[in-house]
């Protein structure tokens, strides 16, 4: 029987016994949340927010009883929402109080947020059972936090819930869209072609006789709506007003964060310019579909010896051509000579390329019982936390955290990053409203070919002809049709699609020539493509933000032990069709390698072209670093969150020396961290006349984070600076 991946299969058990793994209460409740997400409708934005808001509850319930940390929501005003709180005497048993408050807080939030979930009955049994097993009275609903930790947890939950009802998400109305409307009529995916699309640059809904979302819920005769096109209006975590632009379409404002500018667009009236980049991007998606055949005799090494270690990314559309290999797939990653944890070379793993590409597409698709991409990265964090080689020190230095403290801080930071990634990516999706490959490829195929005006069916907006992959159907071709009606139209050599699969447990569609207007993504025919615009890739944004955050949080780019793995057994793992034909173990040396692999998987799966991918990676880099920097200021008492403290550093970028101006006099402890979390400089500056000089000349070019504390250790500022 095929196995549906839900977690990392606990592969750490090869090196860790059950007795050694003692999960914190925070971890127990995080796993209940992931269970709740997998039983709910597949809404990545909504569940990124659920992960963040429960992480706030966990963190504040831990921090309120901590002598060293500052709460985030409790006792603060966040985005105009106040959560009044007067300190209570410290409990006799701090950890017991933290565990009880966390349990009540998350229990109440889960009951509220998933009350209308199709999986609510199962969830209630699970969370009631957990409360009972912990010995807590789940019927205690008092929010008088002065009475004890249970009431404190209930009060924190109440504050989080009330905050969520005014944060711009439209939760009270089921998160429905308030003004967005698609410009294109729906594509009936079961019927070949795409004859009625109005604009090949804009998103097109899909119509299904039967639709099954990524969480496995089935709907009949449905046109799924665009999920969260107005999500830029939701209150963020570390995103700042300066990161946003307000744009207007048809009288409605769209808040767009980290605007990358528009994707390449198709000109259906002329050849040349960025229209050719559009065609190249979607042609690549179709061509990479030809790499999904395990019977093509091509073998590849999928170990870190040959994969991972990308050192730079394209800066523009033309750079995509060198980064993504049009015919062989993949990227120019260098691999690693040795595992830094063992000092030994990574062992090669040679498998059929078609098995590797199919496994990638399904593993990172997070289906069909999906915890959505942000939840997947919480599973990865939980996997990391269970590794014996992990030292639980924030940024890889400082005091060792116990399990509860580490989980509270790590969930808080990762939750904030995933929430900001959702807001950013979907603000861009909603504004640019871009097309998906299934609409673009079929739509261009309807127009014809754009390579040669002397050949049949020439049209400036048609598919480019690429010998061996995109050609015209000739007389005598098996695809010519009973009356030769398809002669001269475009055909593709690609994955043949679900029409060639009767039983996905035993059948493999394989790769071959099909009519281009019959093209399918490598997905289930009852799903096809997520119901929201393509540009930018949410998977790429989530994954790179998480990878950067985990790199900085742990103080190393490498997974504990220098490698993480996920086992995909022969003829069991795949769901879209039978396979893989051999055992495949996905391997990653670093968090960034896992993120890059996730990005590639969406191209193999026919969900995104490269131009959707790279902007998501680049924006995710910023979000992950910013989220951790923002989170860590709460890990120390007396943050300056609501003060009028001013700070400036200039010039920025700088080649060597920068001047700091701030409202401070005297000795100023300063630390400089690299973007990956490594501390590069720790020094004391003398601030005279509210000014000091900081020397960066010894550092290589790159992005750094400068932070300063007063002599009592209170955080004064955190600022990014670029060294040229």
Q: What order do the helices and strands come in, and which of them pair?
A:
Layout: H1 25-38, H2 44-63, E1 77-78, E2 81-82, H3 94-113, H4 120-134, H5 149-164, E3 187-188, E4 206-212, E5 218-222, E6 244-249, E7 252-257, H6 274-288, E8 299-301, H7 320-323, E9 350-352, H8 353-363, H9 372-385, H10 403-432, H11 437-447, E10 470-472, E11 490-495, E12 511-515, H12 538-554, E13 564-568, E14 584-588, H13 591-604, H14 610-632, E15 647-650, E16 657-662, E17 666-674, E18 679-687, E19 691-695, E20 702-709, E21 715-723
Parallel strand pairs: 3-4
Antiparallel strand pairs: 1-2, 4-5, 6-7, 8-9, 10-11, 11-12, 13-14, 15-16, 16-19, 17-18, 17-20, 20-21
Task: Tell me about this structure.
Among the domains are: 437-518, no CATH class; 640-723, Immunoglobulin-like (Sandwich). The protein is of the alpha+beta class and 724 residues long. Helices cover 31% and strands 15% of the residues. The protein has helices at 25-38, 44-63, 94-113, 120-134, 149-164, 274-288, 320-323, 353-363, 372-385, 403-432, 437-447, 538-554, 591-604, 610-632, and strands at residues 77-78, 81-82, 187-188, 206-212, 218-222, 244-249, 252-257, 299-301, 350-352, 470-472, 490-495, 511-515, 564-568, 584-588, 647-650, 657-662, 666-674, 679-687, 691-695, 702-709, 715-723. The longest helix has 30 residues, at 403-432. The strands form 8 sheets. It has a 4-stranded antiparallel beta sheet, with no helix packed on it.
């Amino acid at each position: 029987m095929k196995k549906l991946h839900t977690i990392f299969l606990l592969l750490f058990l090869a090196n860790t016994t059950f007795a050694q793994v003692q999960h914190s209460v925070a971890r127990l409740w995080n796993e209940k949340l992931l269970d709740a997400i997998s039983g709910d409708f597949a809404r990545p934005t909504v569940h990124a927010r659920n992960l963040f808001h429960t992480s706030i509850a966990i963190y504040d319930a831990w921090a309120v009883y901590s002598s060293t940390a500052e709460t985030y929501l409790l006792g603060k005003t966040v985005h105009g929402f106040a959560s009044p709180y007067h300190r209570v005497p410290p409990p006799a048993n701090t950890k017991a109080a933290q565990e009880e408050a966390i349990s009540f807080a998350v229990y109440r939030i889960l009951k509220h947020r998933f009350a209308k979930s199709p999986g609510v009955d199962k969830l209630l049994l699970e969370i009631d059972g957990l409360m009972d097993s912990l010995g807590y009275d789940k019927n205690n609903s008092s929010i008088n936090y002065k009475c004890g930790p249970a009431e404190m947890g209930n009060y924190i939950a109440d504050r989080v819930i009330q905050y969520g009802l005014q944060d711009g998400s439209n939760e009270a109305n089921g998160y429905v869209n308030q003004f967005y409307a698609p410009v294109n009529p729906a594509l009936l995916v079961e019927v070949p072609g795409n004859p009625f699309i109005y604009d090949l640059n804009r998103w097109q809904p899909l119509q299904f006789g039967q639709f099954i979302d990524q969480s496995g819920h089935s709907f009949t005769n449905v046109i799924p709506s665009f999920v969260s096109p107005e999500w830029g209006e939701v209150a963020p975590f570390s995103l700042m007003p300066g990161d946003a632009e307000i744009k207007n379409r048809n009288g409605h404002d769209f808040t767009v964060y980290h605007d990358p500018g528009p994707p390449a667009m198709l000109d259906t009236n002329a050849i040349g310019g960025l229209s050719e980049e559009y065609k190249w991007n979607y042609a690549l998606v179709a061509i990479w579909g030809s790499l999904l055949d395990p019977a093509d005799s091509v073998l590849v090494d999928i170990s870190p010896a040959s994969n991972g270690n990308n050192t730079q990314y394209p800066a523009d559309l033309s750079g995509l051509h060198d980064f993504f290999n049009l015919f062989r797939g993949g990227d120019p990653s260098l691999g690693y000579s040795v595992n830094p944890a063992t000092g030994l070379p990574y062992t090669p793993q040679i498998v059929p390329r078609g098995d590797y590409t199919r496994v990638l597409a399904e593993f990172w698709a997070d289906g069909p019982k999906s915890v959505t991409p942000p939840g997947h990265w919480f599973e990865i964090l939980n996997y990391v936390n269970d590794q014996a080689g992990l030292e639980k020190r924030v940024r890889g230095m400082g005091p060792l955290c116990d399990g509860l403290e580490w989980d509270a801080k790590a969930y808080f930071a990762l939750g904030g990053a995933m929430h900001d990634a959702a807001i950013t990516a979907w603000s861009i999706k909603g504004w640019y409203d871009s097309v998906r490959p299934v609409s673009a490829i079929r739509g261009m195929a309807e127009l014809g070919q754009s390579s040669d005006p002397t050949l049949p069916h020439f049209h400036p907006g048609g598919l480019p002809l690429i010998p061996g992959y995109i050609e015209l159907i000739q007389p005598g071709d098996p695809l010519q049709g009973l009356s030769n009606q398809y002669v001269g139209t475009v055909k593709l050599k690609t994955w043949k699609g679900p029409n060639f699969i009767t039983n996905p447990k035993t059948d493999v569609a394989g790769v071959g020539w099909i009519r281009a207007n019959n093209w399918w993504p490598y997905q289930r025919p009852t799903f096809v493509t997520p119901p929201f615009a393509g540009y930018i890739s949410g998977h790429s944004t989530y994954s790179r933000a998480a990878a950067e955050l985990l790199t900085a949080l742990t103080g190393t780019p490498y997974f504990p032990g220098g490698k993480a793995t996920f086992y995909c057994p022969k003829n069991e793992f795949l769901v879209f069709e039978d396979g893989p034909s051999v055992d495949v173990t996905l391997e990653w040396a670093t968090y960034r390698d896992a993120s890059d692999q996730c990005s590639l998987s969406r191209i193999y799966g026919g969900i995104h072209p490269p131009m959707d991918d790279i902007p998501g990676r680049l924006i995710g880099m910023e979000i992950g670093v910013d989220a951790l920097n923002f989170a860590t200021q709460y890990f120390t008492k007396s943050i300056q969150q609501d003060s009028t403290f001013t700070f400036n550093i200039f010039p920025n970028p700088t080649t060597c020396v920068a001047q700091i101006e701030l409202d401070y006099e005297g000795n100023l402890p300063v630390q400089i961290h690299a973007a990956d979390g490594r501390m590069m400089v720790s020094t004391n500056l003398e601030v005279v006349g509210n000014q000091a000089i900081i020397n960066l000349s010894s550092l290589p070019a790159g992005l750094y984070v400068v932070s300063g504390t007063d002599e009592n250790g209170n955080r004064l500022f955190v600022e990014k600076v670029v060294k040229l």
